[in-house]
Write a structure and sequence with these properties.
The chain is α/β, with parallel strands linked by helices and 328 residues long. The protein is 55% helix and 13% strand. The chain has a 9-stranded mixed beta sheet with strand order 1-9-8-7-6-5-2-3-4, with helices on both faces. Strand 2 (19-23), helix 1 (27-38) and strand 3 form a beta-alpha-beta unit. The chain starts with a strand and ends in a 7-residue tail after the last helix. Bound molecules: nicotinamide-adenine-dinucleotide (NAD) and magnesium ion.
Length: 328
């Protein structure tokens, strides 16, 4: 079992007298900046001049905002999209790192795949909340917290873990619990989850079941409710109490049909493919593909996204969702 760090394992005093610079004021950036400030930490936000929207939002929230050229701090948190981090690091961050500095990430991709290679004399740490930024902020305001992962990739100061835990406490994460991991484990499991299960797996499962019903002559609206809309009820049951909680809640027929037929959809061939996808993540093959795709201007990404947007289930979905009064 993993070790879980709680409030008493983390000390905010560790950040006392330290200047924290949060680069980015998006999903994670705004939540970390506000929560740390409210925890009494000295926070500055650094933003590109062209992003007036983030800039105004940060100022309206009462944050001190500087341009990327003025990045400065004992701890610099890279809370901008992963694919732009290496360039921002090379142009604005590398030269600012000195003995005793810490650089912090909320996802391990760039460190794990060597897209950012910080000098040996700085701490390299991760605090990765297991939830989107707005939830990280909302829970904090309510006196609660979102669980997080922490990791240390370089411990130059000898205090890297204490700094990461103090940061985690400052954003409210130790109120819920913080699990220690490595950059490798966080990066590889995160990519695997989103490719196989969360995003890739779920999207293909829904579309293929929808297509199967529609090609057999069933009405698309009925198919939509069945394979997409109702998925939320099932996921909520799993989320709150585990898979067995879902089995307990569904009908006897659903239990028997699901337990016998589900295994024919996810077969040993599916397992082999999952292992292959995991290998591509572990060897860096996926990382190389995605980095090169970005350098090429995202030709495959853009085409696939367009195909997703135009899938028949999207057209039906727009109409069907108008019937549902609790969707604005
Ligand atoms: P985001 O897309 O919300 O970041 C937007 C911010 O980045 C804006 O303030 C914008 O000004 C800045 N930005 C965009 N392009 C820039 C550029 N070229 N130069 C400088 N600044 C630029 O990012 P996010 O979703 O908060 O993700 C930040 C980090 O947190 C990533 O490493 C991500 O993997 C990780 N993370 C995100 C979530 C999440 O729920 N969004 C959860 C866990 C971890
Ligand atoms: Mg992910």
């Amino acid at each position: 079992m993993a070790k879980i760090y709680r409030e008493e394992d983390a000390d905010l005093e560790v950040l006392k007298g330290k200047k924290i610079c949060i680069v980015g004021y998006g999903s994670q950036g705004h939540a970390h900046a506000l929560n740390l400030r409210d925890s009494g930490v000295d926070v500055t936000v650094a933003l590109p001049e062209w992003d007036r929207e983030s800039w105004q939002k940060a100022e309206k929230d009462g944050m001190k905002v500087v341009s990327l050229e003025k990045i400065e701090g004992d701890l610099i948190a890279m809370l901008i999209p992963d694919m732009v981090q290496p360039e921002v690091y090379r142009k604005f961050v590398r030269e600012k790192l000195k003995d005793g500095s810490a650089i912090l990430f909320a996802h391990g991709f760039n460190i794990h795949y060597n897209q950012i290679v910080p000098p040996k004399n700085v701490d390299v740490i991760m605090v990765a909340p297991k939830g989107p930024g707005p939830l990280v902020r909302r829970m904090f305001v309510e006196g609660k917290g979102v669980p997080a992962l922490v990791a240390v990739n370089q411990n130059a100061s000898g205090k890297a873990l204490d700094i990461a835990l103090a940061y985690a406490k400052g954003i409210g994460a130790t109120r819920a619990g913080v699990i220690e991991t490595t950059f490798k484990e966080e990066t590889e499991t995160d990519l695997f989850g989103e490719q196989v299960d969360l995003c890739g797996g779920v999207a293909e499962m829904i579309k293929m079941s929808f297509e199967t019903l529609v090609e057999a002559g069933y009405q698309p609206e009925v198919a939509y409710f069945e394979v997409l809309h109702e998925l939320k009820l099932i996921v909520d049951l799993i989320y709150e109490g585990g898979i067995f909680n879902m089995w307990k809640a569904v009908s006897e027929t659903a239990k028997y049909g699901g337990m016998t037929r589900g295994k024919r959809i996810f077969t040993e061939a599916t397992r082999q493919e999952m292992r292959k996808i995991l290998k591509e993540i572990q060897t860096g093959e996926f990382a190389r593909e995605w980095i090169l795709e970005n350098l090429a201007g995202r030709p495959v990404y853009n085409k696939l996204l367009e195909m997703e947007a135009n899938h028949p289930i999207e057209i039906v979905g727009k109409e069907v969702r108008k019937m549902i009064p609790w969707f604005k």
